[in-house]
Design a protein that fits this description.
Blueprint lengths: L3 E4 L3 H13 L3 E7 L6 H5 L2 E6 L10 H11 L3 E3 L9 H9 L3 E2 L4 H8 L1 H10 L7 E2 L6 H11 L3 E5 L8 E4 L5 H16 L4 E5 L4 E11 L3 E13 L2 E7 L6 H17 L3 E11 L5 E7 L6 H8 L3 H9 L16 E8 L1 E2 L5 E2 L2 E2 L2 E3 L5 E4 L6 E2 L6 E9 L2 H14 L1 E3 L5 H8 L2 H4 L7 H4 L1 H5 L6 H11 L20 E7 L2 E9 L4 E6 L2 E8 L2 E4 L2 E2 L3 E4 L2 E4 L5 E4 L15 E3 L4 E6 L6 E2 L4 E7 L2 E6 L4 E6 L6 E2 L4 E5 L5
Parallel strand pairs: 1-2, 1-4, 2-3, 4-5
Antiparallel strand pairs: 6-9, 7-8, 7-9, 10-11, 10-13, 11-12, 12-15, 13-14, 15-22, 16-17, 18-21, 19-23, 20-22, 24-25, 24-32, 25-26, 26-27, 27-28, 28-29, 30-31, 31-32, 33-40, 34-36, 34-39, 35-38, 36-37, 38-40
Helix pairs in contact: 4-5, 12-13
C-alpha cells in the first residue's frame, strides 16, 4: 500500500479520496490554484502545494507541475479524481516516466476509449452492440449533414473527445443541423481541444444505464448497474442503483458486455461502461466508456458495500482484485442527487456567491468540497454537494431522498435544491418511468415554484426588524395602545410592504396584504398561525427562510434606490464569463430568437438570443473579453410606439 499519494484534483472528489486514504493510513498531498487556497480539500490534506492562478490551464491542467509537486513531497502515486487530467494518456505516461504510479488505467486503455468513434469501432470488433451512426474521419459540414439525413432524424451530435454533456446537441430536423453542429464543435474545441464529432441515431425513449467495472489489467468484474436517465442538457441530475425495471437476464447480459469491453483493452482500475437503452424494448447499445471514477460512484458503493476508492488504491499498489464476481451482491437501493449552485428558473444558469450557511440532513451521506464561508467561483464546476441515500427498497430510498432535499439548508447562492425535491416527488419517477426526456417534458411543473406563503413573509419581517430573538424583560412595555410599524422588503425581486403590530415581546400580528399572521413565542420558539416556524438565517442584508419553497428576502436600503431595471432592450451577461463570440454589430437588424453572442462560463457554452425583433443600437463588449454578471453586452434601439 502507498505511504503517500497526491490528489490531482479539487472539490468534493479530492475530499472524497482524502477520507478513504486517511482510513487506510495513507498520507495525502493536495494541489490548489489561487482561487482554492483556502478550500476544503486543502485544509483536509496532510500537505498542499500551490499550482498557479485560477484558470485550469494555469493550474489543474499543469501536469508538469503536478508531477513536480508529487516528487517534491515524496508521494508515490497520483490519484486523478475525475475531470481535468483523469483521462489524459500523455499525463499518465509522464507520471510513470517520473517513477510514480498513476492510480487508474494505463495510457493505452485510455487512448482506446478516449475517442468515441474509435471506441465504438473497437466495441464492434469485440461483439458489443453499438448505436447506429457515423463515426468516421470526414468532418466537413455538408458530409455530416448528409450522414445525419441517412441515419434519420432525430440525431445526436457528440464530441468524439467529449464528456459531461459538452459538445453534444440533439437535432430534430435538417433545418437546425448546421447551427447545432457549429455550436457543438465550438464547445468541443474549447473543452477538449478537439472539434471532431460523431453522429448517432437519437433513441426516442432512451434510458441511460451504465455498468461499473473494475479490472486488474487482465480480468475484470462488474459491480452492477446505475440508471442515470434523469438529465438536463445531457448532464446527470439524479442517479440510482440498481436500475428500475432491470431483469436478472438483462443485468447479466449488460454486465457481461461491460466486462467484455473492459477486458478487450486490458483495463485496470475503476471504469464505467455506458449504454443507451430503449425504454420500450429494453434493447441496449454501447455509448462510451469512462476510464475513471464516475461522479455517481457512491450509489454503487451503497448497494454493494464496496469502497471503490479503496479498491483503486489497493489494485494500483499491486494487490489483486479484492472480490470475485460471485462475491458481489446487491443490497437495497440508493439514489444520488447533485446539488448545484444554479438558477433553475433562468434556464439552469450556473451561479456564484459566498455560502453563508450549509447544513445537510441527518443520516444522509453528503459528499461535498465546500463549507459555510466558502465561495462558489466562476472558475470551476458549481457543484456544492452530492446527496446520497440508501434504503431497503426503491420506494423507501426515494422517500429518504425527498427528505434529504427538504432538510438540506443552503444560503448565500441560488441552488437547484427545490428542483431536486420536485424530481424526488415526481409521480412518474416514483413509478420507475424513467427516461432522458422526463425533465424536458415536465420542466414547467418541475420548476414552477409555489408563491411564498404569507407566514414566511411575516417571519422575514420580524427577522428584519430584529424581533425574532428572545425579548428583553422590558420589551413590549407600553402605556398606550400598540402602534403598527410598516417595513418594506424585497421578496424575490418584488417590493412587499408588511405591517407589524407588537402587543408584547412574545405576541405580534403581521399583516401581509389582506392576510394577518398571528406570531406567538413559546418555549419551543416562534409559531406562525400556531405552526412551528421554519429554520432561517440572516446574512448581511439578506434573509433565507428554509421553508417549502425556500424564501429569499432582501432588506432594501431606503437611501439606495439603484438604477432602473433592465428592459427587453438590454441584453445583460447572466453570469461572469468569457465572451467567446459577438455575432452582431451596431445597426444590424435582428429577429426574435437570433443568436447575438456566445458566453462561456463554468465549462459550458451559453447562447444569448434576441428577445424581440429590432435593430442593434450598441455593442458593449468584444469577443475574447471577460465580463461580469449584469454587464451590458448589447442594447437594442427603442421600439417606436
Amino acid at each position: 500500500m502507498f505511504g503517500k499519494i497526491l490528489i490531482a484534483n479539487r472539490g468534493e472528489i479530492a475530499c472524497r479520496v482524502i477520507r478513504t486514504a486517511r482510513a487506510l493510513g495513507v498520507k495525502t498531498v493536495a494541489v490548489y490554484s489561487d482561487a482554492d487556497a483556502k478550500a476544503m480539500h486543502v485544509a483536509m490534506a496532510d500537505e498542499a502545494v500551490r499550482l498557479g492562478p485560477a484558470p485550469v490551464a494555469d493550474s489543474y491542467l499543469r501536469g508538469d507541475q503536478i508531477i513536480e509537486a508529487a516528487l517534491k513531497t515524496g508521494a508515490q502515486g497520483i490519484h486523478p479524481g475525475y475531470g481535468f487530467l483523469s483521462e489524459n494518456p500523455d499525463f499518465v505516461e509522464a507520471v510513470e516516466k517520473a517513477g510514480l504510479t498513476f492510480i487508474g488505467p494505463s495510457a493505452t486503455s485510455i487512448r482506446a476509449m478516449g475517442l468515441k468513434d474509435a471506441a465504438k469501432a473497437l466495441m464492434e470488433k469485440a461483439n458489443v452492440p453499438v448505436v447506429p451512426g457515423y463515426h468516421g474521419a470526414d468532418q466537413s459540414p455538408d458530409f455530416l449533414a448528409q450522414q445525419a439525413a441517412e441515419i434519420g432524424y432525430p440525431v445526436l451530435i457528440k464530441a468524439v473527445a467529449g464528456g459531461g454533456g459538452k459538445g453534444m446537441r440533439r437535432v430534430d430536423d435538417a433545418a437546425h443541423f448546421a447551427e447545432a453542429l457549429a455550436s457543438a464543435q465550438a464547445e468541443a474545441r474549447t473543452a477538449f481541444g478537439n472539434a471532431d464529432v460523431l453522429i448517432e441515431k437519437y433513441i426516442l425513449s432512451p434510458r441511460h444505464i451504465e455498468v461499473q467495472v473494475f479490472g486488474d489489467g487482465t480480468s475484470a468484474v462488474h459491480l452492477f448497474e446505475r440508471d442515470c436517465s434523469l438529465q438536463r442538457r445531457h448532464q446527470k441530475v439524479i442517479e440510482e442503483a440498481p436500475a428500475p425495471g432491470m431483469t436478472p437476464d438483462l443485468r447479466d447480459r449488460m454486465g457481461a458486455a461491460a466486462v467484455k469491453a473492459a477486458e478487450a483493452i486490458n483495463y485496470s482500475g475503476a471504469g464505467t461502461v455506458e449504454f443507451i437503452v430503449d425504454g420500450t424494448t429494453m434493447d441496449f447499445w454501447f455509448m462510451e466508456m469512462n476510464t475513471r471514477l464516475q461522479v455517481e460512484h457512491p450509489v454503487t458503493e451503497a448497494i454493494t458495500g464496496v469502497d471503490l476508492v479503496e479498491w483503486q488504491l489497493r489494485v494500483a499498489s499491486g494487490e489483486p482484485l479484492p472480490m470475485s464476481q460471485s462475491d458481489l451482491t446487491i443490497t437495497g437501493h440508493a439514489f444520488e442527487a447533485r446539488l448545484y449552485a444554479e438558477d433553475v428558473p433562468a434556464g439552469f444558469l450556473p451561479a456564484t456567491g459566498r455560502i453563508a450557511h450549509l447544513q445537510f440532513a441527518d443520516d444522509v451521506r453528503a459528499d461535498s468540497g465546500v463549507r459555510a464561508g466558502d465561495t462558489i467561483t466562476p472558475w470551476y464546476d458549481p457543484m456544492i454537494a452530492k446527496l446520497i441515500v440508501h434504503g431497503p427498497d426503491r420506494d423507501t430510498a426515494l422517500r429518504q431522498l425527498a427528505r434529504a432535499c427538504a432538510e438540506t439548508e443552503v444560503a448565500g447562492t441560488v441552488t437547484n435544491l427545490g428542483f431536486l425535491g420536485a424530481l424526488a416527488r415526481h409521480d412518474g419517477f416514483a413509478a420507475g418511468k424513467v427516461d432522458t426526456g422526463l425533465i424536458e417534458r415536465d420542466l414547467d411543473a418541475l420548476t414552477n415554484c409555489a408563491a411564498p406563503a404569507a407566514e414566511t413573509i411575516a417571519l422575514s419581517a420580524l427577522i428584519a426588524m430584529g424581533l425574532d430573538g428572545n425579548p428583553a424583560p422590558q420589551t413590549g412595555f407600553t402605556l398606550w395602545a400598540p402602534v403598527p410599524q410598516t417595513i418594506t422588503l424585497s421578496v424575490e425581486g418584488d417590493e412587499v410592504a408588511v405591517k407589524v403590530t407588537a402587543f408584547s415581546g412574545d405576541r405580534f400580528d403581521v399583516a401581509v396584504g389582506d392576510i394577518t399572521v398571528a406570531v406567538r413565542r413559546s418555549s419551543g420558539g416562534l409559531r406562525l398561525n400556531d405552526q412551528a416556524a421554519p429554520n432561517y438565517i440572516k446574512h448581511g442584508d439578506r434573509i433565507t427562510i428554509f421553508a417549502d419553497p425556500v424564501l429569499e428576502v432582501t432588506i432594501p436600503d431606503p437611501l439606495d434606490r439603484g438604477s432602473a431595471e433592465a428592459t427587453s432592450d438590454a441584453i445583460l451577461s447572466p453570469m461572469p464569463g468569457l465572451l467567446r463570440a459577438m455575432e452582431v454589430t451596431a445597426g444590424q437588424m435582428v429577429k426574435a430568437g437570433d443568436r447575438l453572442a456566445v458566453l462561456e462560463a463554468m465549462k459550458m457554452e451559453h447562447i444569448l438570443r434576441a428577445p424581440r425583433d429590432g435593430v442593434i443600437a450598441t455593442v458593449g463588449a468584444t469577443a475574447g473579453s471577460q465580463v461580469e454578471a449584469g454587464a451590458l453586452l448589447i442594447a437594442l434601439e427603442e421600439e417606436v410606439a
